[in-house]
Structures are given as structure tokens and as C-alpha cells.
Amino acid sequence: MLKKTIVFTGIFWWLLMMAVIIVNAQTKLGTVVIHFSHTANQQPLQFNDSVYANDFGERYTISKLKYYVGAFKLDEKNLSLGFDKYVLVDANQTENKIIAQLPEGNYHSIQFKLGVDSTDNCSGAQTGALDPLNSMFWTWNSGYIFLKLEGNSSASTAPDGRIEHHIGGYKDSMNVASTIRLADNIAIEAGKAKDIYISFNLDRYWNAASKIKIKETPVCMSPGFLAKTIAANFNAIFSIGSKTITY
Amino acid sequence: MYISAKDEHHQPSPLKFDIPKGWPKPSKNIFAKNKLTEEGFQLGRKLFYDGNLSADGEVSCASCHQQFAAFANYDHDLSHGVNNALSIRNAPALINVAWMDLLHWDGAINHLEVQPLAPLTNPIEMGESLENVLKKLKKDTAYIRMFTAAFGDAEINSQRMLKAMAQFVSSLVSSNSKYDKVMRGEAQFTDYEQRGYETFKRNCNGCHKEPLFTDNRMRNNGQHLNKKLDIGFQAISLRSEDSLKFKVPTLRNVQLTFPYMHDGHIYSLFQVIDHYSKNIDTTQTRLDPILKKKINISNKERIELVYFLYTLTDSSFVRNNRFAADHITTIKNPHHPQLVN
């Protein structure tokens, strides 16, 4: 009797698994292409030459803007980035594009993490996007710089009027990895590619939940209170648009 | 010592990491994603002794971590970097590093593999950029051969370099001092040493725990703030309760690793003992509770204690040719008889 039950249970599970496999095979995949673009004062961000002003009237130029993104999700569906878990977005590149496949359907939000998980901050020498060669790793205080923004401003009190914001921190109270969630109707159709345009608005970097005045905080070079204050604006920086910004 | 270029199907030979009997397991992750191999170890050793890793070609890891000083910097309170720069802390001895979760006096480094990035890029130490180091390695045919031997192909990248260095440094295990021989029943303490051991167990074992002779924790041992205003772990944790906390160093080979403390301001073991028996700054609010009461020790016990500490000297460690610069080594590799020196 017991044996029979085991055999029947076995057959039942086998059938169920086959059903799951067949359903999976029938799921049609579409492609999503996520583009990152960067603006300041409603203009496409130009490096070094263009002078921008923040909401506090401080004028500045930008020479570097890089940040880590990862853990992309459309609704609850994780997007696989292939081999790498993170992408290092460099605003000075002509294109920052992430391509992934996912089941067709209507999605209502896109979510991603700005920063690097704590485990990946403590796992030794890494390669790819997390290679320390990318100058996004603090050598004297192990951990990744999640976002690096450098430039110049007449308002800066640092030598040569520099702006140097190296924002990171993975330890409990210093953790600044931020989950960004943007609502949008995203229809993924089988066999087709859907573009999503995510815009990084530098105006909000200075002025959102926290008021970051260049005069007061031209430099942030380590995890801690200041990094947390600046990172409080991360959520407001990003928005979703319908088309890419042309350069 | 190189593998023949014709040998395309070469696999690096695994090395077993021997945990001395009765010792705890090494720190998590040390070998999890970095398989210890003979070829990886040899590559790590070459990198460790290579001055080309510094900006001026003069400063190698071994400049400040000398084998005869148990991989500390002999007779140097602080160490010399490129351009006659002087470091701000005493070079710690590289002994049993595989058991350490945090590295550096201030506990700032969270994994052995990323530790070399700190001295490599620090302008007062090796003053070089990672990019430049890799450029130099890629031009060197010996390195191309050795990276191939260690990792299966000729790609030279930062991850491979750092993993090879971690393989060498984590292999620096010292477990064959007179103390170890006594514990294994192969030798006996003299009466002085035995009484020194009793004194040690009464007064020092709280932080310098056997068998590693450190608990690898961050503690405030009652030193004054030095002129460099070095607040230690507090600068990393950003917590005031961590003021003047430094990592407890191992006492293994302590006879060879002078001068002592994070800034090397104490030159003799007797003075170190005096620090704990007389000179602790008990007014410090963050002083480790274990040290609130100064150590009460007679002059005789003080001498006996030093005799005991000398039994922690491991001459087989400081004279081990496998840990020395490249010239006097042989590789044992039964699968590859064509290995040549």
C-alpha cells in the first residue's frame, strides 16, 4: 500500500513538472532595452565645457559621473544581465544601454538598485564592472564607490574649486545602496524590443530630500553621515521618459 | 621554474592548505573562490618580491615585510615608501594572515585579496596606479608565462594578480616555534619559560589568544593619541566608542617584529610589558574593559614572561626558502617533468 502511494505520488510530481516545463517553453520572450541618459538644467549633460547652475544659484561644470546599477526588475520579474551582476554607467559614454529578455506581458514598473550589495563589497578581488581598475573602489577602506561625481565650481571651498563626491558605504548604518522604483506602463511583446529611457536629472542631485550646497559640501570621500545625506536624493534623481535624449 | 610553452593542456597543481592541529579554520572566503595552487603561489611570491609594482621600481611588498623579521619591517617604527615618503603606521607582521577577517591596524580592509590595493596605490607607500602595474606585468614575458601556468591562459588582470598575491600571503603560516613543539610534546619549556607561560596565561591571553596569539579584534589598549592624530578604528566605523582601537597583533615571532604598537613607538618587549603594568592611560573612556585594572607583575615575572615570548620565535618560518625571493626554489610537480629551474 505504502509502495503504491509512493509510486503514484512520484508519477503525479513527474506529470506536474512536465506541465511546468511545457508551460515555460510556451512563454514567449520579448526584449527590453534600458537606456540611461543624463541631464542638467533640462539640457543633455555635457562634460567640462558646459556650465550649469543648481537651485541655489551655484554654477558648476561636470568632469565625471559614474555609478553602479543592478538588480533590475520589471514588476517582480528579475532581469538577468548575463554574466555581470552590475553595470557601471558612465555618463560620459555616448550610450549606456542594458539589454535583457523577459516574458511578454504588460508591466507597470521598473526597479533597480543604485549601488553594490554588501556581500559584493566584501568578496575580495572581482572582475568585470567591479574590477578595482574602474577606480570605483576605496583602497584604504574596502568598499565600492557607488556613485562618483566630479567637477568644478566657483562656489567650492576645496582646492582648485573642485567638486569631489564619492558616495558609497555598505555597512549597516552607513549603507547607501538605494532601490529606485519607477512606475510606467511597459508592454513587452514577444520577439520585439521595447526601449525604456531612464533619465538622471542632476538638478535633483543637489536639491531633493536633502539640500546639497556645493559651498558647504564640495567634497565627500568616505561612507558616513554626509554620504547618507547626499544619497537621500538618489530616489528623486531618476525619472522615466518616452524617448532618448539626443546629443 | 617555468612551465614549457608547449604544454597547452597544463592544469595548475592544487596545493593543500594545512591547518595546524588544534587550530581553528581559516577566515571565511579565503580559499572559497581562490583555489590554492603551486603555480598561483609562485606567481604571488614573484609579485610580492617585485619592486616594479611601485612607481619608482624600488619598493616591493617585501621592502616593508621582510622574511627575517617575520614579514614585519625590522627596526623600523615607520616604513619608507617611494620618494622618501614615510608611512604613518608600523608595518604589521604577515603571520597567519589566513585567519584574519579584517586587515590593517584600523581594520579597514575586509578581505585579503583587496589588501594589496592599499599599499600599491598609497602615495606614501608604493605610489603606483593599478592600471600602470598591470601594464608593466603585461610587458613581462616571465609574468605572461606564470599567469598562464597559474590560471590556464595568458590573460593578466587585476583579479588574477590579487588572487595570486593572496595565495602567497595566506601561505605564510608560522606554527613551528618552540611553543608549538612543547604543545605537540616534542620539546619542553625551561623552568623560566614555563613560569613565563603561566604569567602569560594569567595576564595576556585575554586578547592574545592561543594558538594564534591574537583574537584579531579591535581594542583600545590605553595608548595616547599620537602626533599623527591616528584615532584607529573610529575613522573606519565612525563610532566614538571605537576611539583609539587598533587590531590586536599576533605575538608569534614577537622577538623579531620590533618595534611594537601601531606606530612602532615601543622598542623592547620589556617596555611593552611596562606599558600594560604601568603606563596604560586609564583616563580614556574607551579603554578596553579587560585593561581597566593594570597588570600586576613582579620584575622576575616580567623577565620570565619575555623568556616565554621568545619561545614563539619560529626559525623554520623565517628561514623557509619557499617564502624567500625566487632564486632557491624547486617545484615538485609529478605531472610535469619538463619543469625547469
What can you see in these coordinates?
The complex is a heterodimer of chains A (247) and B (341). Chain A is α+β, with helices and mostly antiparallel strands and 247 residues long. Chain A contains 5 helices and 14 strands. Chain A has helices spanning 2-26, 118-121, 202-206, 225-231, 234-237, and strands spanning 29-40, 43-44, 52-53, 59-74, 77-78, 86-90, 97-103, 105-114, 145-153, 162-168, 178-188, 193-201, 219-220, 238-241. In chain A, the strands form 2 sheets. In chain A, strands 3, 4, 5, 6, 8, 9, 10, 11 and 13 form a 9-stranded mixed sheet that branches. In chain A, β4 and β5 form a beta hairpin. The radius of gyration of chain A is 22 Å and the shape is elongated. The termini of chain A are far apart. Chain B is mainly α and 341 residues long. Chain B has 2 domains: 38-174, Cytochrome c-like domain (Cytochrome Bc1 Complex, Chain D, domain 2, Orthogonal Bundle); 178-313, Cytochrome Bc1 Complex, Chain D, domain 2 (Orthogonal Bundle), CATH 1.10.760.10. A two-stranded antiparallel ribbon of chain B has the order 1-2. In chain B, α8 (191-203) crosses α11 (299-310). The longest helix of chain B is centred in the middle third of the chain and has 13 residues, at 158-170. Residues 1-6 and 336-341 of chain B have low confidence and may be disordered. The chains are: A alpha+beta (247), B mainly alpha (341). Chain A binds chain B through residues 121-127, 131-133, 137, 139-143, 171, 174, 223-225, and chain B through 29, 33-34, 108-114, 117-118, 120-122, 130-131, 134, 157-159, 161-163, 166, 236-238.
Roughly how much helix do the residues of chain B carry, as a percent range?
A: 25-40%
Helix content of chain A: 10-25%
**Contiguous uncertain segments of 5+ residues of chain A:** none
SSE succession of chain B? HHHHHHHHEHEHHH
Strand elements of chain B, count: 2
The structural class of chain A is alpha+beta
